Amino acid sequence: MPLLRRSLLATALVAAAGLAHAADADVPKGPLSRNVVPSLVQLELKLDPKQANFTGSTRIQAKVAEATDVIWMHGQGLKIAKAEAIVGKKHIALTPTEADVSGVLKMSAAETIPAGDAVIEIAYEAPFGELQGAYRVKPDGNDYVVTQMEPLGARHTFPSFDEPSFKQPWDITLIVPEADVAVANSAEKKTEALPGGWKKVTFNRTEALPSYLVAFAVGPWDLPQGPDIGANGSRTSPIKLRGVAAKGQGARMKYSLENTPVIVKALEDYFATPYPFDKLDNVAAPDFWAGAMENAGLIVYRDSLMFPDEKSSVGQRQSFWGVSAHELAHQWFGDLVTMRWWDDLWLNEAFATWMGNKIHGQLRPEAHTDRGLLEGAIGAMGADSLSSTRRIHEPINDFTQIQSAFDGITYQKGGAVLGMFERYIGEDQFRTGIRNYLKAHARGNATSADLIASVAAQSSDAAGVDAAFKSFIDQPGVPFVKIDVECGAGKPTLVVTQQRYLPLGSTAQAAQTWGIPLSVRYSDNGTIREEKRIVTGANARFELTQAQSCPAWVMPNAHGAGYYRFALAPKFQQALSGAFAQLDEREQRVYADSVTSAYDAGQLTSAQLLAALPQFTTAQVRQTVTAGTGAIGWMDEVLLNNDADRAKFRSDVAKIYRPRLDQLGLSPKDGEADDDRLLRTSLVNFFAGTLKDATVRAEMSKQGRAVLGLGGDGALHADAVPRDLRGIALAVAVEDGGADAFDAAEKHFRASQDPSLRSQLLGAMGSTQDPQLVERARALVFEKGLLRRNEIFPIVGGQTAEPATRPALRQWVDQHFTELEARLAPAGAALVGLYAAGMCGEADATDVQSRFADRMKTIEGGPLELKQTVEGIRLCGAQKAARSGQSLFAKR
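The structure corresponding to this sequence follows.
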């Protein structure tokens, strides 16, 4: 947090504490006053997953800094039966009022509560939520309760001080049906039988936690035992590891449980700090809107992430390793040390993104996670190029802004910036800074400034690194570096200018600078050298002190480690293209990005971009091979106006990529690299989906029909196609197979509890082009008890891919918006993108803005989602107008 903002916030909090008798106009919509601070929360809940409501009591031990007759806290949708503050032997009645739509709870005291110790006791009843707070799922005819408190779900489940800075221990007790299993953040302390078929499960007191990390689960869960996580370093006792899965599904957690201990130990070794909690449970949640949630000691995952095995697709296995490493990294970054306020969410998520990739890559080198981190950074640059983008360290002043922070800027850009400064400072030195930060703030809260100061202190220029780091988190946008080379008298020198990268049609201002850790590699008489320094200001000179001659070529982003884009003077741009084979794999990818981003900025014609793509296909790295396919899809849909031109375009594009697909073949080979399997999947999707290649589609349709049992016994044959290709094979089979294929997919979907297969079958049904079948697919969303709520987007998402199915989808979203938003909350803002898919131009932008402006005002993440969607539609229109009439291929 910048010093100025910290000072202003401190002033505001002091003022708030002095205004304890504030009027309703002073409802705290941002951080609460620190006038009342909890020191212990005792939470008892009576939960029956079969019922619509639950009851609870909260006892909060707190310190009151200054006498007050109002306590501000949080609670939403709670029917409070009794509330009082206890000071000594005096009981002071509290009258609750929901003071704001965000869930701010005003507790008005019958008389002044004096400064000092106080206890707040509240008894209440509440309904189960919809994918947030405590919510119910029924995947298999049995009833379960799962929780998701981040970011604002806790206030729907219990009255609390629902902010990251309020961090204290919790005593959790659950009263549940006697046949049900109950688990929570900490290990079970005791279980007592109660009359009427109930039992009372008491758990150990937790470490200090904010409310958003409180978690529990109730129901007829399987509890498969994992291997103990053996003693490691200063931790001399083993950690108990369990799985938590829906009834009958526990055996499917064998792979994930067997491979969890090695991740925990690798993180302990990196942090030089033992795992912070008394046990570890991995919950395979049957319905979960996020991928996973890092609750202390009780990590909740979407069940598909916990169910891979050695035969699973490469993507599913890698997802387990990557997501598990990410969530386990959070046990230190986020759980042991927690941000103070949501503007520092990146301290949790960017770090876990970067650290998860590091540990995953260390343990599974074949996953090439450094490539994935780079691809994520390049993807984030798309959103970061918008004028409406947000900063990594973005002020959060309203509850609707919190959900917006869970995006590619926080996760992928933040992770890339951490990786950039790690490379600049040095891996060992950076790790020392991280360890010092954890030691200094363990079991407390910290800020951006704390982390940056700790790692910058390990560099040779602490002040310079500190300022440069803050320039990346405290302002939006992608740096754009232009470089020329001066050779002559003295050492060769790079002439560097920097500004903000802007796509064609952007209304943002380009005049912006960063402290860029510029790292360059260059060829000096055949010797490859590398130099680095922090470059500041709009214009700078970078002398190549090691060079003995004028460089033959210069790579301005050595090893692809920098979060910036570049362009070279024409002579050196051509030289770098000629040296493509000499670049390392990450450098080839950022070179490809320099070409595609030049196209997006209007610096290249479509023909020039297409002419560059064959070189990309010579790369070993799959992400570089496919770097231009997104632009091809856009050209195919937006720039071509008739079937004949489109057929020729697709035929010409296929010639670029077919040699690589032919080299791989359409079927996996024994012993081939995981990356080859993933590249095959990408290319098959591209040929079958974008290019509509008849040969590839015919083979995929054949394999998909075999899975569905069409033309055979009608039974499901899930492994009739390699799992890496099963999703696209099913989609093509249903697209081409009409009602018979759709019926078969629906039949098998209704009979399956396999989350991965269910998602693929839904995606296949949703990708049909038949209007009547599309309508049937959408109708499944409202069939009571059929779809898990995280399956809504798979069934309708395929309808965004084709122009023919979008109009009816838009009408459906518009008509059912209220019901859909309620079911998807807090992810309802994504409905804007569902409606707007394929829109391009001013008229479309106006339609979306007018249709959703009022709807998004009070939806978590809604205002920014709408703003960025509308801007993207306008930018598409600018690109289309600028390229109208351009030839797509240069004359040969």
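Confidence is low (pLDDT under 50) at residues 1-23.
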